[in-house]
Every structure is written in structure tokens, then in C-alpha cells.
Amino acid sequence: MDIAQSTIEEENLDFQFAQRGLKVIWDTGAYDFLQDEASDTANPSLWRQGQLCSVTAGLYHVTDGVYQVRGFDLANMSIVQIPSSNGIIIIDCLTSVETARRALQLFLDFYQDRTGQEADIKALFYTHCHVDHFGGAQAIVDIAAKVGTTLRIISPYGFLEHAVSENVYAGPAMALRSIYMHGEALRKNPVGQIGCGLGPALSTGTSSLVAPLEVVTKNGLLDPEILGLQVICQLTPGTEAPAKLNFYFPDYNALCMAENATHTLHNIQTLRGAPVRDARLWSRYLDESITLFGDKTDVVFSSHHWPTWNGEADSGTNVVKFLSEQRDYYAYLHNETLRQLKDGKTPLEIAEDIVMPPTLSVRTNLQGYYGSISHNVKGVYDHYVGSFIGNPAYLWPLAPVDEATEFVKCMGGSQSVLEKAQAYHAEKNLRFAATLLDKLVFATQSSADEKDSEVAKQAKEELAAVYTVLGCSTENGTWRNFFLTGAFELQNGAQAAVNTISPQSLMALEFDQLFDIVAVRINGPEAFKEPVKYLEKEISIDFLVEDVEHFKIMGA
């Protein structure tokens, strides 16, 4: 069987797996348009990925005892039953309290209808420290509290530190980038947001942060155990998140890979901003997963996308193949980037020159729907030597507005730059047209004399048109959203961030984290302007804190 034929068969298998096991339907209809043939305003491969990610929202049966709620948010909620009991555990809980509440209620209603009993929620597991996996936690806590359940909340070591670092300290900046990355300002239609490659979209409700009460610090059987259910843990720090945890369930021959293996190439350096990931470690941990669990696993499921099952008749190798391909792709991307780095190439040069293995590059589960080879190469480069490329000309560049102003002057003024950019657009050299127009927009918008000029208006319109073409043609979902949101904001103005973290989430933080939050919000330059008031005398700030024991427990 040749590669092309094998790929077609496996693509068909993706559609079977994505729909398999649907039990209860809850259909928003937002992505119904994706069931039509691919629009000419979208890359056909990304359209296909959008179809797979937007299958009917509802409850899916993964294997006996394991379920997932998919299509309610960017991520999945997974539910595992405790054998011979009505107990369940929940793995990840979506972005928002509202979607998590609805998703869990969907399973609870199904379980009661099927068994005549109420499910008993024993534990909530966080696989890692990204908000689409813990933001709905308050809903789980509230539902468990209604029936008087003592809920265990379990996370990988380092979870709270990194959750606060990414989502609170840097939260405002990440929220603004998320508008672009996930296309939050775009309408869901063939000319707008068609997903983001990893799932449909982030929900737009209120995110919570409930601190874990238990932390996994070593591999092996969960300790203390969950009575009646074996849970084998595999810590994978430094992969898709700095605090990360996979789970294997021997009772069901089922492996949860968190977000370490999904049906897309993932990010080494994410567009929303996050610590750069280690592609070498990521590959090594995938290899460890295969060694530990590969020959024991009948189905692998993750916090995004759909599961992969082994062949039912002959105990086929779909699971190991799926994990192996992910392992090999990250390893090759890492190694080839470093090989070219050794030869003195810059990240931009490597990103243009790198060629991935043909046996892997045809695989749909490795396409750049969410992460991209181009950006990941730059992430590997940054991980080892930083973003500076070693050229003195880039050691101390001008700020963007100042640089753009000087470029426009050098090229004969705004009208000249506009005409040159229009010519590049007409020649379909869109990338350089975007570069010129970006300089022109920066320069004209910073000038009081030109800001409202006809040239300034045409520059914004032209750049929006170039971004639209780039967005509609790219295979990468987050690139599409970035380009199209850029076009949208050029035409409609900047958009406010959608997701918010609830004030009560601050109760999950430790004292030093609370003080850090205060510190990063102090405007130092404003204090410098009034030295007599702020700088020439000692100032002390007293904090009165009630319920200290609560903070000690939550910060333990």
C-alpha cells in the first residue's frame, strides 16, 4: 500500500473516530456551515479540521467506563467511572464555569437515566496549567458541594505557580493576544472564524481558579489512591505546559495524554504568549508514554480532539503509531533546527528552509492546524539561544513607530510607499506587501498631520485586504484568526478581551502571589512624577487578611 492510499484510509478513519460513541446531543449550531463543501474563503485542509472539531456537541462514549463531553468549549471534559460503584472522576473542566456546569450536568443526567442512580463525584484532576483546562472548576466544586461530597482536587507539581504566572501575572497581555489567536472578535462563518485547529473556540463565560488540594510529585500509582480505581500518573513537565500530567487507567486499558498528543502539530512557542516549550523533552516524554503504556492501551484520548482506538479485530497498532508519529515529528523539528542553527542560520532562514520527513508531513494528525513549523522553529531557536540572531544591526533597533516613520521617509513618503505596496499586492507578494503596509500604517497613525488623511485610510484598507487573503489561504487555524482579526480591527477598531477570571479566584492564590499581583499593577512612572508625595518619604502598606487558615490550606 503506498503512502497516499494509506493516508486516505486514515483520513476516513478520523471521521469515524470523531463521530464514534455519541450518546447525548447539545448542538449550538454555530458551526453548522462547516458541514458544507469547503468554501473558497478557507484552506480546504483547515476546513476539514474544522469539520472534525465541530462534530455534534455532546456526550461521547470513549470506552466502557470512560466518556468525554466535546464541542462545548475549546477543550474536552473527560469523565471516568470507578468500577462497581457510582463514583466518577473528572479530568479537566473547560474554560468557563458556565460551560463546565452544562457539560457535567449533561453526563449526570445521562448517568441517572441509564442507571437510576446519581453519580458521586470523587475527584477533579487538572492535566495542566492552561485556563481551558481549569477555568470551569468552580462549577464542579459547586455541584459536588450540593450533595455534600468531599471533592479531591489533584494537579501536577507546579500547577498553581504556572497557572498564576500565565493567567494572572501575564493574563491581561495574553487575553489581548487571545482575541487574535482564537478569533474571538470574528463571526463564525466561511469568511470568519472556522475554529482554531485545536477545537472550535474558547467559551466566553467566567473563568475560575480553584487551587488543587493534592499535588502529584512522582510517577506511578496515585497516592493516596482513589478507592476502586487504579490511576497511574506520568509527569511530563516542560512539554505542552510547564506543569503537565498524563494518566493511564488499567481498568479500562485507556490512556489520557492530556494535551501532549493531539490531532495537529502543536505549539513550541504559542502565538498568545507562554513559556517556550522544549521539543526535545516533549519527544522524550512521548517515547516514555509508549514504553510505559503503549502495549497495554486500547484507546488514547486527550484534552482536545477525538480519541484514537486500536483495531478491534486484530488489536491493531493505531495507538502506538499515533504516539510514535507525534514523538518523531517533534524530535525531527528539534534536531533539524539545531543542525541549521549550527551552520549559522537565523530563525527566519531555518523556518523557510526546513523540510520535514515526507512520511510524516503527509499525516493529517501532524499538519500545522494549531502550531506551525515556521513558528515552532523559532521557538526551538529561542529556547537555546534567545530571540537575538547575533547580528549587531538587530542589537538595538528603533521602536516600531520610529522605525516605520524612518522607513517611510527613506522610500519617498506615504504615497510612494502605498503605491509600492499596492504593486506587491497585485503581484501576489502578500508577505512583503503586508510588511510595507504595516510600516505605513504605523507611520501615518502616529502622525497628527497624516492620521486622518486619504493615504492613511487607503493604507488601512489595503492592509486589511492583504491580511484577509493571507488568512483565507492559510492551513493554520490560529494564523487565519490572527490575519482576519488584524483585518477586522483595521476596519472596526480594537476589541476588548472576552474572558474574565472571577474575583473569588484570588482566594486560590498564596500570599506571595497576591502581593506579586499588587506589585505588577503599580505604575512606577506615575510615582516618579510626584517624588514629594511618593519617593521622599517612607510609605508602608498594611494588609488586613481574614480567614488566614483558608489561605494556608489553599496554598499548601
UniProtKB/TrEMBL annotation:
GO BP annotation list: dodecyl sulfate metabolic process
Domain Metallo-beta-lactamase: 74-304
Keyword set, alphabetical order: Hydrolase, Metal-binding, Zinc
SUPFAM superfamilies: Metallo-hydrolase/oxidoreductase (SSF56281)
Keyword flag Metal-binding: yes
GO molecular function term, any single one: linear primary-alkylsulfatase activity
Matches recorded under InterPro entries: Alkyl/aryl-sulf_dimr_sf, Alkyl_sulf_C, Alkyl_sulf_dimr, Bact_Alkyl/Aryl-Sulfatase, Bds1/SdsA1_MBL-fold, Metallo-B-lactamas, RibonucZ/Hydroxyglut_hydro, SCP2_sterol-bd_dom_sf
Listed Pfam families: Alkyl_sulf_C, Alkyl_sulf_dimr, Lactamase_B
Assigned protein family: Belongs to the metallo-beta-lactamase superfamily. Type III sulfatase family.
Full protein name: Beta-lactamase domain-containing protein
